[in-house]
Write a structure and sequence with these properties.
alpha+beta, five-stranded mixed sheet, globular, 313 residues, 6 helices, 18 strands, 2 domains
Length: 313
């Protein structure tokens, strides 16, 4: 099997509409397919790249998965002990121009092959209609969930994106208690700004992340800021949202560092938060009692050459 994909020679299969069961509103991972006409990009890292390129990458999960993780360039893009159908989970924010590695791992012992991972992309210069997405890779769950235990499935995708990942010029995280403590402090800054809905504070804390959002969503930085703040205000105004206390429980916070060490986040691991026993949670969570849903705000951090830890994804 050739796992190095050339998207210039891609099969196209029929679009399958799946049911998206919402457990947490993953603002960043899922993305929003509200493609805008703006294409301004202010990042210094993209000056020499082809600014006409506009591609986005996704994965559909058509079925029930267990103990499954999807990594993009060694970064955890999806991680769940149990998950239902997922439609168009965004992967672009973890990618860079050129070669990208995608990996599926699972500790499931199920022989169920009734579900599929379907990786797709869309060229926005040709169409902004989500139904025109091209599926270039389909993997049956039965090929991943083997009775032997942990199995891996890896392949490469060569992209024509107009940006490179800024963390590739950053410093590496060290897996230590000190790193964990520093990240908890960063999360608390974000938690405070989100809880107060302080626009100026959010813009200051997340300024590098907003630039990254602007790059991969092909919009201006101002539009990326307003999009995020609009979602925040909507989530807090629509029902009674209660802050879930996660950051005061460091024993349940686990470091998740990318394979290359260049980006990191914290995971809150607790099976008591949900009846479906989902164990992997974002630390920034609010429970909406009126709707009965948990709203989470995913974030990844990088270390600049000056040693500053900043939110970037």
């Amino acid at each position: 099997m050739d796992n190095n994909l050339n998207l210039n020679k891609k099969p196209k299969i029929n679009v399958f509409t799946s049911i998206y069961v919402v457990v947490a509103i993953l603002i960043i991972l899922a993305g929003v397919w509200d493609f805008m006409s703006e294409s301004k990009n202010n990042s210094d890292l993209t000056k020499e790249l082809d600014q006409s390129k506009k591609e986005r990458y996704t994965v559909d999960i058509d079925g029930i998965t267990k103990n499954t993780k999807i990594l993009v360039n060694g970064i955890t893009a999806f991680n769940s002990s149990t998950s239902g159908y997922i439609d168009k989970l965004e992967l672009t924010q973890f990618m860079t121009n050129g070669d990208n590695n995608i990996e599926i791992t699972s500790t499931s012992v199920s022989n169920d092959s009734s579900c599929n991972f379907r990786f797709g992309y869309i060229d926005l210069n040709k169409s902004e209609n989500i139904n025109d997405i091209n599926y270039y890779k389909e993997i049956e769950c039965g090929d991943v969930f083997k009775t032997k235990g942990v199995e891996e499935f890896k392949f490469n995708v060569n992209t024509n994106l107009r940006f490179v990942s800024p963390w590739l010029k950053g410093k590496k995280f060290v897996d230590s208690d000190e790193t964990k403590t520093k990240l908890i402090a960063k999360y608390k800054e974000m938690q405070s700004a989100l809880n107060s809905q302080d626009e100026n504070k959010l813009k200051s804390i997340l300024k590098y992340k907003f630039q990254r959002d602007a790059d991969w969503m092909y919009m201006s930085k101002d539009s990326a800021e307003q999009r995020y703040i609009k979602i925040v205000k909507s989530n807090f105004s629509d029902g009674n949202s209660q802050l879930l206390d996660t950051l005061s429980k460091p024993d349940k916070l686990v470091l998740d560092i990318s394979k290359d060490g260049l980006v990191a986040r914290l995971i809150f691991m607790d099976s008591s938060l949900d009846s479906n026993d989902l164990q992997y949670w974002e630390p920034l969570m609010w429970y909406n009692s009126d709707k009965g849903i948990t709203v989470s705000y995913p974030v990844w951090f990088m270390i600049t050459q000056d040693g500053e830890i900043i939110p970037i994804i």
